[in-house]
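User: I'm putting together notes for a lab meeting next week and I want to include a structural view of one of the chains we've been expressing. I don't have a solved structure, so I'd like a prediction I can at least talk through. The sequence is below, exactly as it appears in our construct file.
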Amino acid sequence: MAEGKRTVADLTTAALPTLSRAERQVGRVLLGDYPSAGLSTAAGLAQEARVSPPTVLRFAQSLGFTGFPDLQRALREELRLRSSGPINRVDDEVVAGGSARETVLHFARAQSERAVDSLGRIPESSWDAAVSALSDPGKRIVLAGGRFSYLLAYHLGLHLEQLRPGVRMINDPDGRDLGTVLDLGRRDVVVLFDFHRYQRSASDLATAAQRRGATLVLVTDSLACPIAPRADVVLDVTSDAGQTFQSMSAAFLLTEQLLTLVVDRMGEPALTRLALWDRSRDAEVLP
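Assistant: Thanks for the context. Below is the predicted structure for the 287-residue chain, given as structure tokens.
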């Protein structure tokens, strides 16, 4: 997508509260099988949503498209771009004639604005559900991620274990961490990070968590992530940096703000554990 351009999923999520009941049904069906549901015929999507074909047309227009074919063109463009790796995102338009400092500040400001904007689009209910899951002392927390996004899982996990017991980070669910996966149950919360390009290993872990009744919290960069329809909670933030490589800065901001909310929700038990943790490390930390 062009810099700052929102996906059809983003537009649908933002518009849901303002749509008619019938149009909301179309939106939910689209998000539930994204983007495949939107690539069928208008009649097919209408049948899935149990509405009339004209409702599908009104839904597309409510999102700002001229009609359903225009919406489908946007979906096909998303798919084309999703299939490309970093080499296809090389940006030849680095700040012309600018110094390294000017270039860094130019991209950093734009990236920061995108990050904050994407955090603001996460529904309040999703924030609350995620914080409740992470703060429940009766739940075990298992965190995992993909090739790069495991860094986010470990960042969140290393902080969470200072606030509460029962935190486990894994990065080899089919190998040395297989026991943890096999032991998943209804008292577990799996926090899974999966960013484009989405990985089969993440999908397999989500399937295992779902089969065993664990709560699945997904952190991703788009509701088009294949795991999104199966997750109990979805927190989606931008990974668009307008540069060659995607960015995890918005996701790091998200994990840091989640930690603040967890401390506030847990209260004294979290602060007590944090104090004990710090005291135990006194001998290790240099003055």
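A couple of points you could mention at the meeting. Residues 123-280 form a domain with the Rossmann fold fold (CATH 3.40.50.10490). The mean pLDDT is 87.

User: Perfect, that's what I needed.
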